[in-house]
Amino acid sequence: MSTTTPDKDNTFRKYAPEAAARYRSFRIPYPPTLINTVIDTHKSTGGHLDTLLDVGCGPGTATHSLAPLFQHAYGADPGPAMVEAAQKDAPITASGAPVQFFVSTAEDLLTSIPEIKPGTVDLITAATAAHWFKLPGFYAAAAELLKPGGSIAMWCTGPQYCDPYTTPNAVAVQAAIDKLQEEVIAPFEVEGNRLCHDLYAKLDLPWTIKDADAKTQAGLNEFDEGGFQRIVFNEGGKLEPGEEFVRGMKHASLEMTKKVWSTASPVQRWREAHKEQVEKGEVEDCLDRMVRVVKEAMGEVEEGKGRDWIDGGSSLVLLVIKKKTAHMSASYVLLPGYLSSSIYATASIVMGGEIGQRFKHTAYIHGMFSAAQCWVQKTHSRDSMVQTREV
């Protein structure tokens, strides 16, 4: 995988307070299934629930679901209006303290939020946000902030689908949705949107970034490929009879569906580009068109006539990255005329696969450090298979 930096996008950074409030009201909460999977995966790989940092938090959509599970929680977003919206109804942590929100980019966390000390964060989340980050800098900052054994959890949604079992004339309805996404929305996507569309299959990970500077690379090396997990929900719109989308809406009016879709950055770019044409009646609004064609498709069959609601949702991917954990022990022996120090350190990282690291460091110091010898031996055993689960 080659290193790619997502195109910088200011759609959300330049939001006015009213736009941020509207965005928050139309963004549905992340589902319990996802939140539980994030927490369970983090805990099952040695993570704790003391301190949370939600990066690219926007108006706090994910923060609200996660913060009550932690003793301390912070949110960071580069958009001042988004942070203002998040602060208006700040969630409460398990300790009873409100979440603190800060204006910061993902790569500037260390300098922008002095309240968070290095090595104190248990879980860093990025909810539908990592595709906008400068990832090398973000990973390096995360490596410094996380405790050993801490986690990064990043997720995003992919293409939209109708429920194939409950939607009248479902094949035609899905074709209409696909056509809207491909012909109307896709031309207004940037690299970050495309990374989402592909469910982060091409998102750079710490071990795929090869051209970082030495300091950044040191941070990247703190993460272990063997413990990486990629968990996919409803890929390709797949559902079993009676099953619901993990990230979806049941019996949602088409008007509400339109409002939810209006928060997508490609839709906002389309509307900016066609504002005058829509106002003059020369072009139909892209989401008005979506509602119209979906209604028309459902109305082609008897059970869909007059229906103004739909069951639908999207595919969803969760990536979990673990910071390495080290357990060290040391013993010292004083010999006549010498200080002999033998330090044996064993780092045991268990994150899906097992990694064992053994270091032996022996130093002999005589008088005023007249002689010194150092020997380091490092061995690895690795299950480097990346774990991918489809749910």
Which helices and strands occur, and which strands form pairs?
Layout: H1 17-26, H2 32-44, E1 51-55, H3 61-66, E2 72-77, H4 80-88, E3 100-103, H5 109-112, E4 121-127, H6 135-145, E5 146-162, H7 170-185, H8 191-197, H9 214-220, E6 229-233, E7 247-253, H10 254-261, H11 265-273, H12 275-279, H13 286-298, E8 309-322, E9 327-335, E10 338-351, E11 353-366, E12 387-390
Parallel strand pairs: 1-2, 1-4, 2-3, 4-5, 6-12
Antiparallel strand pairs: 5-8, 6-8, 7-8, 9-10, 10-11
Helix pairs in contact: 1-4, 6-9, 7-13, 10-13
Pfam families: Methyltransf_25
GO molecular function, one term: S-adenosylmethionine-dependent methyltransferase activity
Organism: Mytilinidion resinicola
Structural description of this entry:
By secondary structure, the chain is α/β, with parallel strands linked by helices. The chain folds into two domains: 17-162 and 189-247 and 311-322, Rossmann fold; 327-384, S-adenosyl-L-methionine-dependent methyltransferases (Single Sheet), CATH 2.20.130. The chain is 30% helix and 27% strand. The chain contains 13 helices and twelve strands. The protein has helices at 17-26, 32-44, 61-66, 80-88, 109-112, 135-145, 170-185, 191-197, 214-220, 254-261, 265-273, 275-279, 286-298; strands at 51-55, 72-77, 100-103, 121-127, 146-162, 229-233, 247-253, 309-322, 327-335, 338-351, 353-366, 387-390. Strands 1, 2, 3, 4, 5, 6, 7, 8 and 12 form a nine-stranded mixed β-sheet that branches. It has a three-stranded antiparallel β-sheet with strand order 9-10-11, with no helix packed on it. Helix 1 (17-26) packs across helix 4 (80-88) and helix 7 packs antiparallel against helix 13. The longest helix is centred in the middle third of the chain and has 16 residues, at 170-185. The radius of gyration is 25 Å and the shape is globular. Mean pLDDT is 81; it is low at 1-7, 11-16 and 327-386. It holds the Pfam family Methyltransf_25. GO terms for molecular function: S-adenosylmethionine-dependent methyltransferase activity. This is Methyltransferase domain-containing protein.
